[in-house]
Amino acid sequence: MSPAGREVTITIDGREVAAVEGEMLHDAARKGDVEIPYFCYEPKLGDPVGACRMCLVEIEGIPKLQTSCSTPVREGMVVHTRTEQVKEAQSAVVEFLLVNHPLDCPVCDKGGECPLQDISYGWGPGKSRVIDEKRHFEKPIELSPLVAIDRERCILCYRCVRFSQEVSEDAQLQLIDRGDRTYVGTFDDRPYVAPFQGNITDICPVGALTSYTYRFRARPWDIEHAGSVCTLCPSQCNVSFTVRDEKVKRVISRDNHEVDDGWLCDRGRYGFEMFDAPERVRGPRLKGGEASWEQALEAAAEGLRRGGGKVAAIAGDASNEEGFLLQRLVREALGSPHLDSRPSRGPEAGVLRRLAEPNVSAKVRDIDEADAILVLGTDPLHSSPILDLRVRKGIRRNGAKLVVATERPTALDGGAEAIARYAPGQAAHFVSELASAIGGAENVATPVAETLRDAGTVVVLWGERIAREDGAAEALLNVAEATGMASSDGAGLLEIPDTTNARGLREAGVLPDAGPGLADTAAGMSTEEIRSALISGELTGLILFGANPLRDFPDTPAWEEALTAADFVLTFSMHENPTTAKADVVLPLETHAEKDGTVTHPDGRLQRVRPSASRPDGVLPNIIVLSELASKLGLDTGIDSQPTAFKALTNAVNFYNGIEDSDIGGRGIRWQDTPTANNFPGRGGPSGGDSPDTQREAPTPTSEAPTDSRRVASAESPPDGPLTLGTYRDLWAGPITELNPPLKFLQPQQRVEVSPVDAQRLDLKSGDRVLVNGIEAEVHVKERVPEGVVFMAEGVLDGNANALLNGGPVQVKIEKLSEVGT
Fold this sequence. Notes:
- The chain is of the alpha/beta class and 822 residues long.
- The protein is 26% helix and 19% strand.
- Strand 26 (568-573), helix 20 (578-581) and strand 27 (585-588) form a beta-alpha-beta unit.
């Protein structure tokens, strides 16, 4: 609940405490260093419910005890938390909870870090008057493949159910039955499978909900907690690694309201199991087999030296420091301008600078208070899951109006005021039309445009993939101008990039036409140009740092050809994959639990990734490896550790100047909020703005404008003609699920989503096996898929849709497998 505003003074146990009128008494007491016990209260869940009665206090002027979690403060309020009446009530609540709660603390996974334990010692009676047998249940029950529930331990605090109903909004968990028979469960005992289910184990105040991946793995007194940042997706959630014997045993949330609100998706929570997968690259390797570090670095240096200026580099999963060192190695040691950090093409440097200007950049926190939110060209549930929860929170708590404009139906469609669908390859045209409509152009008013035009503050969450189309990024800037973002506090653009640290790598200089700080530099080749140049022989060598083009980049066959044609390929990889099999030299990468460095959140927040677990014996710090490799190529970087690398980075990026590690701390710092943000080159600034030969005009609107409504049509196709292919990245596609035993049940299989109209026309039904341009897939008939379009997933292990992409709209034909052989 948001505070009403003015500051008031209340008295708690004889001590004056400053509070904000309207905030809950419990929060005010906590700020005044007064401890009040509670179970059901959790600010992250929203408005309090006062269910457990543990936080009862005495308030002068009110005859009965009140729950502090649900009582707003007012001027002059006098509160007592330690009177006999309060103590008796709190003791009675504890005694009541322990009537049926088993005293199995020595074997309970929550033992030693359990609020019920602590409160029983601090506020309980110390003994029980009940001698009857306690309730017994089957132990444990599989609530989901990842979460176990011991129902006899549950105190019915309602937290897990509230999370399911009010935060993730999947509504799967319920309180079933009544009275002493009440229990937490799901409808018809179906498994609770949802992208955020692991959060219920964090917020459970007893040992009722535990994770199968951690159950009986460690005890509180033999573990250490290490704060860091998850780098498995662009959300960059703050996490705490539970470490035992130098190995990660658990990942839990580390509250940071500015980034994640204290929640984690299951990808980040359970993904750590892949760290020790058999496929892990545990040391350097040459084509002939394993090698020492000295041999591998000599071979890498020799191969790169032969290529010289004909060597290119592509970075994927890398920290800011690693990206900065990589671009120095390529530009300075090899004399090559050819490097990129994007899976596919994107805007030129001048446009990127305009998109990154502080006055049009939104913070994650802005979503909470926005009047309108536009989700454009992305489904946050799959691309940046924690932002899905943030958008839902903005709608639920602040009444924000949501509008969605995408190729494919999204998980947020149900809460949208207006929905627009555009055909694959038509994002630039749609955004251009939208900017015109918001600006008041005649005869182009649409529900999406009207909602945004009428809103006070607008936040746009946009997917990087729309910027692959010529003119789309420029049109997006026109949307920002039409909605007045530059002059509206709390409004702005927030990109959801394709890769985890995309913004940090760009700002570190891993771009073909921009150096550190997005400064102008000699133009080189972009990712797709590098691929073509390798095939033609114009380039002969390639460095892949945390990038797997055969899995993650469009046009897999072309990348197969490019890697085969290259004279020398150096790959830095965490796990074995088809790309490492083609490499001449393979060097191991650290996991995000072993790495030391910084990453930059899509909203510009620098965050520190801290080493928490030990590396395998054959793995060295990536920063040291890059520095040593540069040295063998004749470049002395002067970098021998993370602090020296970070110092070099902040000196080179002018709007990072002066940022120290202490400034980043445990919560990060947005460079836009520092004095040196004024150094940002900006449009036409000191690093050079858009020049005439680098500007790209937004496409001219045509009569084929996309439809904008709650139900929409899309690309039309002839009765028996091909369908337009759209692709998306599934949350669970990739090695995180394939190399992770607890998550293998989530591994997606390729499917083709078709509209009911197209399914009827092609005589298809859900479950049919078909070939889509040669790729086998299962048919899923989905009502909200536009007619004339089909969707398939990128990055799946079998039948990767990237194999069908070749730089433009792709037409596909569907054949039933039963008919192929006849």
